[in-house]
Write a structure and sequence with these properties.
Blueprint (H helix, E strand, L loop, with lengths): L1 E5 L2 E8 L19 E4 L7 E3 L7 E8 L7 E7 L11 E6 L7 E2 L17 E4 L7 E4 L3 E4 L7 E4 L7 E6 L7 E5 L2 E5 L21 E2 L6 E5 L5 E5 L12 E2 L9 E3 L6 E4 L3 E4 L4 E4 L14 E3 L7 E4 L3 E4 L7 E2 L24
Antiparallel strand pairs: 1-2, 2-3, 3-4, 5-6, 6-7, 7-8, 9-10, 10-11, 11-12, 13-14, 14-15, 16-17, 17-18, 18-19, 20-21, 21-22, 22-23, 24-25, 25-26, 26-27
Length: about 350
């Protein structure tokens, strides 16, 4: 569920139900019952709204205009397939009568694109101007005519995949925008922004530790390459000078060499040396297949041995100068489609 309250009356509550936030994923229930519900008595009783939405709606994000509670904006997603570059099955809808009737607000696809990872865009309304509406997704957009036309609020360079947006209830010029790299603040409705480079924040996946003191935390980093972070700075604090890429990929495992603290392995597959600040590819040659996140693990029994997993298991004892295949092909020759895939069992999917 997603909830929204009418600021002028806390007993008026809107609840948006959802099923599958990522169309195409198996095992989710049918879309029956997905919609917006309104309660006028603090949640004791509910009335179904949003009958204007498509029948195959799967997800709704809803926002109420604080200065005009009858104005609602709803981000609507359906089972129609679409990727990050497609607005298929997505739409921004608007109601001017408290949710009894909705109509599409815009045909601009940029305002409704999905956040990286597949979730639906976020919609927020200026606290004092019901016509000023903002959306946060793979890009951040703004509209000042009730959602009809949009322009960019924030985009590249400088990151993407904006996960949420907040507008100060006291001053609509003050906006906070959070993305994969950190948080940004604007005090002039998005004309200029603070930098997230002043924040020691990141999304890290597989974190490993070097056998040193001070030690380094090494990991792939969401939308920002990789990083090795010192546990102690030389100037009384851990600063940006103590962060450095280690040549690993975003989702990849990162494995510092337990016998050589200057060497870090990562991704599919890289080798980084702190002494030269250089990285190189040391991936096995041949027609092997690898998952998006391919495991890299040093042996617990012999710290000279590094294992690397694709459709076969690899082993190296000489710093990835050569690889030995130590397993047969571990992938299945054939497989059945699980029953939970349901309606997505078709040639296109």
């Amino acid at each position: 569920f997603e909830y929204a309250f009418a600021p002028s009356n806390p007993d008026i509550v809107y609840a948006a139900t959802r099923n599958n936030p990522n169309p195409g994923v198996a095992g989710w229930p049918t879309h029956r019952g997905v919609g917006i519900y309104r309660s006028d008595d603090g949640g004791d009783h509910w009335q179904r709204l949003g009958q204007d939405f498509p029948a195959n709606t799967t997800q709704i994000n809803v926002a109420v205009a604080p200065s005009l509670p009858q104005r609602l904006y709803a981000m609507v997603a359906t089972t129609d397939p679409g990727d990050y570059n497609s607005s298929a099955g997505l739409g921004l809808w608007r109601s001017d009568d408290g949710g009894r009737h909705f109509a599409r607000a815009t045909e601009d696809p940029r305002a409704v694109l999905r956040i990286g990872g597949g979730d639906h865009a976020i919609v927020r309304v200026d606290p004092k101007d019901p016509d000023s509406v903002y959306t946060a997704s793979i890009v951040a957009m703004q509209s000042h005519d009730g959602g009809k036309t949009f322009t960019y609020l924030r985009g590249g360079p400088g990151g993407d995949d904006y996960q949420n947006l907040w507008i100060s209830p006291d001053d609509g010029r003050v906006i906070a925008l959070v993305g994969d790299q950190g948080a940004l603040i604007s005090q002039n409705r998005g004309r200029t922004w603070s930098s997230w480079l002043v924040q020691p924040t990141a999304q890290l996946y597989h974190v490993s530790v070097t056998p040193t003191f001070p030690y380094r935390l090494c990991s792939g980093q969401q939308e920002s390459g990789s990083v090795g972070i010192s546990s102690r700075g030389s100037d009384g604090a851990i600063t940006f000078r103590d962060w450095h890429p280690v040549a690993a990929e975003e989702y990849g495992y990162v494995a510092p060499d337990p016998l050589n603290p200057n060497v870090v392995y990562g991704g599919k597959i890289s080798k980084f040396d702190w002494r030269t600040m250089q990285g190189q590819s040391v991936s096995p040659a041949g027609g092997y297949r690898f998952l998006r996140t391919a495991p890299i693990v040093f042996s617990q029994a012999d710290p000279r041995v590094l294992f690397y997993a694709g459709n076969v298991l690899f082993k190296t004892r000489d710093g990835a100068n050569s690889w030995e295949v130590i397993s047969p092909d571990l992938s299945r020759e054939s497989w059945d489609i699980p029953a939970s895939v349901g309606i997505y069992t078709n040639a296109d999917m």
